[in-house]
Design goal:
By secondary structure, the protein is of the alpha+beta class. The chain contains 4 helices and 12 strands.
């Protein structure tokens, strides 16, 4: 995937008058929260303001989020029209999100569809997966397949069918395949950078204004495991 621009650690993968898609780094928060840390949305606003010499406030709509320790594709809307249409598209599951994960153990099958029922605990910001429906649970579904076997890890490609809180992390934990670095969901130690090896790799969607199908692929972070995963 061609990178449009890299400035001040902001990697822009696609940009036009209506949307901008960036490759999120480990530790970036997409939208402001109680930590008070500068969110990615503000970094993108500053990029747009400087690039186009815009006076006044820059409009930028947050369409979706990624967990702070994950990396990969994040799409923002540059106009209110694009934001409302993208929100509708994501809500109706008209987008196809594909993730890569480096996991500790071999999954039960080379490829499979997992269906669980997730219960979110807001106190510890964690979701637990159950095999059967329980009180206050939400159905979660994904399909995975093995795309590479490394010496100590297995690389999975994952297509989401639902968008639940920490869904991939919780479901992979449930089948004893914790993601590298993910202490919260069963991995035995953290990554040095505080991240986890979960990457939002690809997004296919209909452009909110041009009405054309777009597929954007995000390069993986530069580290030994991802480099081995992408090596031919």
């Amino acid at each position: 995937m061609k990178i449009v621009s890299t400035k001040d650690n902001l990697q822009v993968l696609y940009e036009d008058n209506h949307i901008i898609i960036v490759n999120k780094r480990v530790g970036d928060i997409v939208q402001g929260d109680q930590t008070g840390d500068k969110p990615l949305s503000e970094v993108v606003k500053e990029y747009i303001k400087e690039k186009y010499e815009k006076p006044g406030e820059v409009f930028l709509g947050v369409v979706h989020r990624l967990d702070r320790p994950t990396t990969g594709l994040v799409i923002f809307a540059k106009t209110s029209k694009a934001l409302s249409r993208l929100n509708e598209s994501f809500k109706n599951r008209e987008t196809q999100k594909t993730y890569w994960a480096a996991v500790k153990n071999m999954p039960p099958k080379n490829e499979d569809t997992l269906t669980h029922y997730l219960v979110r605990n807001p106190k510890n910001n964690q979701s637990k997966a159950f095999d059967n429906e329980v009180k206050e649970s939400k159905k979660a579904s994904l399909t995975y397949k093995i795309i590479k076997k490394l010496d100590r890890f297995v690389i999975l490609e994952i297509d989401l069918h639902t968008g639940r809180h920490h869904q991939i992390r919780a479901q992979l934990c449930k089948i004893n395949c914790p993601i590298k670095g993910d202490l919260k969901y069963g991995f035995d130690r953290s990554n040095a950078d505080g991240g986890i090896h979960l990457h939002a790799r690809k997004l296919t969607f209909i452009h909110p204004v041009k009405k054309e199908e777009l597929t954007i692929v995000a390069p993986t972070p530069n580290d030994p495991i991802w480099n081995a995963a992408t090596k031919n």
